[in-house]
Amino acid sequence: MVVSVSRDDGHRFSKPTVGEIRLVAGHGVEGDSHAGTTTQHRYLVKKDPTRANLTQVHLIQAELFDDLDGFTVAPGELGENVTTRGLDLMTLPLGARLHLGRDAIVELTGMRSPCSSINGYQKGLMKQLITTDAAGRPHRRAGVMGVVAATGTIRAGDAIRVELPRGEQRPLGVV
Known about the structure:
This protein is mainly beta. Helices cover 12% and strands 31% of the residues. An eight-stranded mixed β-sheet has the order 2-1-6-5-11-8-7-13. Strands 4-3-12 form a three-stranded antiparallel β-sheet, with no helix packed on it.
């Protein structure tokens, strides 16, 4: 289920929650600073401004907020556009399609790799969002990224349906 939706027309860390957002196929969240066919992430624009935008929509599961030890975080505060509940986003495969509300579809492109600005928001939070397993492998928890495959409007309370890709299920990498 969609818990909340957020957007911001500026490149600020957090995004204010709003009543609804409109996802535009191939573009992203209407009125959001990360919308566009080419990357809008400031760091990636410096490297290659022609790079395809694989981070049009950022989704985080609200269960992450419940699990942050010693930190209080609300929807939109980590810069996500869509906060969900009841769906383990981090275990979905590359190419999974999330049907949000009546018409919108987001196709997952990868995991968000949180940047150091998270510690500027709340000191020490980065260690909660990237942990290490027993084998020393990083475990990212800062949500997933996707591109808009079908235009539609979504609101808090909307249902989410997962459509898995056909063929081999490949895990999400970092985008």
